[in-house]
Design goal:
Elements lengths: L6 E6 L5 E7 L6 E5 L3 E3 L19 H8 L4 E2 L6 E6 L14 E3 L15 H8 L4 E4 L5 H10 L5 H6 L8 E8 H4 L3 E2 L13 E3 L7 H4 L8 H25 L7 E2 L15 H12 L2 H5 L3 H19 L4
Parallel strand pairs: 4-11
Antiparallel strand pairs: 1-2, 1-12, 2-3, 5-10, 6-9, 7-8, 8-9
Helix pairs in contact: 8-10
Bound molecules: flavin-adenine dinucleotide.
The site of flavin-adenine dinucleotide has 25 residues, from α5 and α7.
Length: 314
């Protein structure tokens, strides 16, 4: 275990087989190298720093590293999950909105708006005006169950002095990307191998289309998949690694185009790059509704940004 030390690039041998990883220690700035018989990517999903609950460490590094060695992704049409929550907090726990009514600012109900069904109506309304919710469909027994079932749901309300059962509060939809969407690294066998020899995937980094279609939602299947696929991927990687290690001494080539390259006269402006990417990923009109021409437009800008980064021009 190397703490505070994100992995940023995979290493491959002369045949393109994955044989390790390299990264940086964020406290010292030193790089580290780990040679290995095989690698399991378990870096979670990607929510593009949207501040959705628990998601701000999930920046898709594993997907990038894997893509840079040629791994295929699967189910990425399901990478646009948005979590529903109060506009003033990061708590995107959505279950209790099944007991909510949604309102315009003037207090009139929004026809068709809902959490499980009707989020598109909320997204559409949010494009032009704020949306408010009130958990006024919960009876007393449900209310007391809610407090014990998910106490952290109420923390931000209590801090703001808002009673969500009687007061209208502003809500928003935060991108959760492939955290609650299901796209990820394509898994080609029961030991969770990817399309690249020596590379395995587990948990949210892998596609979850195999277990739950397009949207994972909440519930124990997510943790069950993380544990099960971790077990299978670990066993698969260990078997692969044992065989690889018994072969002749291997060379290890770096594969990253940007992360540790440090090209150009100055370090890239990370904040500016993050803003530019978020501007393509967050807006509902781009990522929620996903029209071909709009996606094409975004892709052109993102590809151009990536080319500039790779050439050290930004
Ligand atoms: C709001 C919310 C509620 C949820 N509720 C439930 C629930 O009730 N039940 C359930 O089963 N599931 C639930 N889930 C889903 C569940 O949290 C995930 O499916 C599960 O955590 C995935 O486990 P994982 O190990 O694949 O990834 P994660 O738990 O996301 O862990 C990935 C780890 O990789 C690390 N990492 C990222 N990049 C790098 C890098 N470059 N180098 C090194 N490390 C890196 C991250 O810091 C993180 O620690 C919920 C998810 C959300 C967002």
């Amino acid at each position: 275990i190397i703490d505070h030390s994100p992995a940023l690039e995979l290493l491959v041998d002369e045949h393109g087989t994955v044989c390790g990883a390299t990264g940086v220690n964020r406290q010292t700035g030193d790089t580290w190298v780990a040679n290995a018989g095989a690698v399991v990517i378990a870096t979670g999903g990607c929510a593009f720093l949207s501040r959705a609950l628990g998601c701000n460490v999930l920046t898709g590094d594993g997907h990038l590293m894997a893509a840079e060695v040629g791994a295929e992704l699967s189910g990425m049409e399901f990478s646009n999950a948005y979590g529903l929550g109060p506009a003033f907090s990061s708590v995107t726990k959505s279950l209790f909105y099944n007991w909510a009514t949604f309102y315009y600012k003037d207090g009139s109900p929004i026809e068709g708006a809902g959490s499980a069904r009707g989020r598109s109506v909320i997204a559409k309304t949010l494009q032009t005006q704020p949306v408010f919710a009130c958990l006024n469909r919960a009876d007393d027994s449900i209310k007391s169950w809610m407090r014990t079932a998910q106490p952290n749901f109420f923390v931000s309300f209590d801090r703001q002095g808002i009673n969500p059962f009687i007061q209208h509060f502003p809500v928003t939809l935060r991108l959760e990307g492939t955290v609650r969407g299901t796209g990820g690294l394509h898994v080609v066998s029961e030991d969770c191998a990817t399309t690249v020899p020596g590379l395995y995937a587990a948990g949210d980094a892998a596609t979850r289309g195999l277990i739950c279609g397009g949207f994972t939602g909440g519930g124990s299947h997510n943790a069950a998949w993380a544990l099960s696929s971790g077990f299978w991927a670990g066993a698969g990687a260990a078997t692969f690694g044992r065989n690889a290690r018994s072969s002749a001494t291997r060379i290890a080539l770096r594969t990253g185009g940007v992360a540790l390259q440090g090209k150009g006269s100055h370090a890239p402006d990370s904040a500016e790059i993050i803003r530019a990417v978020q501007a393509e990923l967050f807006p509902y009109e781009r990522n929620w509704y996903r029209r071909g021409d709009v996606l094409e437009d975004s892709l052109q800008r993102l590809d151009a940004l990536w080319d500039r980064l790779r050439s050290g021009a930004c």
